[in-house]
Amino acid sequence: MKKIIWIIIPLVVLVVVTLRFGASSEDYNADFEKYWKEKHDFFKNSRESPFVQKNISYEKVKVFPFNPDYRVNAKLHRFTTREILTLSNSDGTRTNYLKYANAKFKIGGTEHSILILKRPGFGNQYLTAFGDETSGETTYGGGRYLDLKIGKSDRIEIDFNKAYNPYCAYFDDFTCPLPPKENLLTVAIRAGEKL
Which pLDDT band holds residue 24 (cuts at 50, 70, 90)? Predict the structure, then answer.
């Protein structure tokens, strides 16, 4: 009986690891393709698309190839005190945001952190505007955004493969918040939407 248990346990562990990590690469890639297809479809066809509203032909945005190294698991530290941060916008105006949390993660063996903000009165929406070493060269100089899902856990997934440009990257008449200094990353994030 003990021999059978010692054989079964490693097999169960192997199956769990294979299911968790073996198929995940394909799942991640499929999720990446679906995300950008939906974004292209929105820009091309939705009445809410700025391209459709302005009657401007939409050309498919260019994105970096999917890279699992830029999908990170971060440690989330929620702030216990309410602190307002005023961000400059692309048009020179300013907007107030609530400092919600700080997320720490590693890319290329180096630890980084990103500040997560919440706009008062906008429900469960979180702003994660960031700049990096590609900003102004291969990506938009005013920074890029990420949408995050935040639950009750102290861990959060940050998928830079889904980093996207704000509307002001396409049209000057849009107002977009610029990344706070805490989110100017000292690493090249070669993932997500290009310039």
Answer: low
Three-class SS state of 159: strand
Contact between 166 and 77 (Cβ < 8 Å): no
Q: Which helix (H) or strand (E) holds 158?
A: strand 155-159
Burial of 23 (0-12, 13-18, 19+ CB in 10 A): exposed
Above 60 in pLDDT, residue 95? yes
This prediction has a pTM of 0.82
Q: What is the mean pLDDT of residues 79-108?
A: 93
Contacts of 193 (CB under 8 A, 6+ apart): 61, 62, 63, 139, 140, 144, 163, 164, 165
For the chain, helix (H) and strand (E) counts, in that order, are: 3, 6
Pairwise CA distance, residues 51 & 63, whole Å:
18
SS percent in the chain: helix, strand, coil, step 5: 30, 30, 40
